Predict the structure.
Amino acid sequence: MNAIEVKNVTKVYPAIKGYKELLLHPFQRKGTTALRGIDLEVRPGQCFCLMGPNGAGKTTLIKILSTLVLPDEGKAFIKGHDLEKETDEVKKHIGFALAEERSFYWRLTGLQNLDFFAALNNIPLSKRRKKIQEVIDLVGLEKAAGRRFNTYSTGMRQMMAIARALLTDPDILFVDEPTRSLDPVAAQNIRTFLRKEMVENHGKTVFWATHDLSEAAEFAHTIAIIAEGQIKAEGSVRSLTGQGSFPLKEVYEKAVKEPAPESKAFGN
Ligand SMILES: Nc1ncnc2c1ncn2[C@@H]1O[C@H](COP(=O)(O)OP(=O)(O)OP(=O)(O)O)[C@@H](O)[C@H]1O
Ligand SMILES: [Mg+2]
């Protein structure tokens, strides 16, 4: 069974209309089409990179798969469970760390934050302390855990977001640009952690959005290139580059420029 399955998923963000326009054209379907008929399959234990330029739809797809946003059309399944009909079951299998992390309490320590989120996730009191220690050890924040979150570096905050995602012991981890704004060493630590620790040592499926080509080339089993809300190319680095005959950058640039097929093109 696939870890993740996406079938013809489409998302249109409505344009914010003024009262006058709403009264004059109540049924007009204006807005931004973020995803246009996305089809994807991700096998368990894969490190899957969703690669695409700004505004391609990466975050929107991650938000849909993390049950934060509903699609307008299409279906998605996590380990065979329908995202919309079996949301509670889906939530048991997923963890996510989004790009813009604003939900931590800055005046609380890392430990206190994790305790709060563990309670929010209904982790019983008897197991909470052990679980929190386990995720802190896993991400290597033992020394910083007792410090206030506002004293953390960007890299530490990102690791804390991943630690929080791991509290429920999910099989599938969604990470949205986990290395954005990080220095090369911190970025490499996160990449190695996701691929080696999460995927290879713990057998998790990692769904990783990035626009860093070299990151995807080095760490992904499979890459999907998304642009203008559509998957333009997909496969292993070897297959995408013709067994290394041409650079991934060339493949990426060509795929991003490729016009949308007529059948899936929308009005805007
Ligand atoms: N809440 C929203 N309301 C309206 N439009 C939105 C909203 N969120 C995203 N969009 C639009 O949907 C499209 C896809 O955005 P999305 O954030 O998914 O792209 P992305 O690939 O994650 O980009 P980036 O690399 O910049 O993070 C963009 O055109 C964006 O402007
Ligand atoms: Mg994004």
Q: What stands out?
A: Confidence is low (pLDDT under 50) at residues 263-268. The chain has ten helices and ten strands. Residues 47 and 221 are 5 Å apart (CA to CA).
